[in-house]
Write a structure and sequence with these properties.
This protein has helices at 34-42, 78-92, 113-124, 149-157, 164-168, 192-204; strands spanning 6-11, 28-29, 32-33, 48-52, 66-68, 98-103, 128-133, 136-145, 173-178. It is an alpha/beta fold. The protein has a single domain (6-204), classed as Spore Coat Polysaccharide Biosynthesis Protein SpsA, Chain A (Alpha-Beta Complex). A 7-stranded mixed β-sheet has the order 5-4-1-6-8-7-9, sandwiched between helices. The longest helix is centred in the middle third of the chain and has 15 residues, at 78-92. The chain starts with 5 loop residues before the first strand and ends with a helix. 41% of the residues are buried.
Length: 208
């Protein structure tokens, strides 16, 4: 399947309160950081990668990737990170029609994530797509067209909208589905207990 040129966006702008602060993406799972695992999965599927993170961008200098901060203040949530990615793409990669986003705390992303998001969007004939595993939708794991960039800015800055699914419902969203067994490919690490569980998954499923 031919995939439109797509910018990969890792969302690492959260506050990680349940982990006691810091960057969840730097937690090591199965001998590699979650960030390394996310990059290993996303980079082959995307034309280019960037990171959305707030604070000192130098802490990600080892990746060699551009780091873009939210333009909407006060940690406005994932939509602000997605807008930051869309703005970067418009300025630096205007030939890309889409960005694909994934959180920086998901160590087991699918190897076919991006092409299947594109396929879900095409089949549903809508501009957006997100992932689903089992009975759980993952609106942060999604495909976002640059054509809706200014609409998203208006929703964030004028309407004060923060919920992803409220915004995507306005335009229509396709869903790419994965099973959640034997493990959920969108399992995310929010707590020390989650990190321990992820380590067990990595041990039991080396190709996860």
């Amino acid at each position: 399947m031919t995939v439109s040129p797509t910018l990969g966006l890792i969302l690492a702008g959260g506050l990680a309160r349940r982990m006691g602060g810091g960057d969840k993406a730097r937690i090591r799972i199965g001998g590699a950081t979650i960030l390394q695992r996310v990059l290993a999965r996303m980079a082959p599927q995307c034309s280019r990668m960037i990171i959305n993170a707030n604070g000192d961008p130098a802490r990600f200098s080892d990746t060699g990737l551009a780091v873009v901060a939210d333009s909407v203040p006060d940690f406005a949530g994932p939509l602000a990170g997605i807008l930051a990615g869309l703005d970067w793409a418009a300025a630096n990669a205007p030939d890309y029609a889409f960005i694909a986003s994934a959180p920086g705390d998901c160590p087991f992303l699918p190897k076919d994530l991006v092409p299947r998001l594109h396929e879900a969007r095409r089949v549903a004939n809508v501009p957006l797509a997100c992932a689903r595993s089992g009975e759980q939708s993952h609106p942060v794991v999604g495909l976002w067209p640059l054509a809706l960039r200014e609409d998203l800015r208006r929703a964030l800055t004028v309407e004060g909208l923060r919920k992803i699914d409220v915004w995507t419902a306005r335009y229509g969203i396709g869903t790419a589905e994965w099973p959640d067994a034997p493990f959920d490919p969108f399992f995310n690490v929010n707590t020390p207990e989650d990190a321990a569980r992820a380590e067990a998954i990595a041990k039991n499923y080396p190709d996860a």
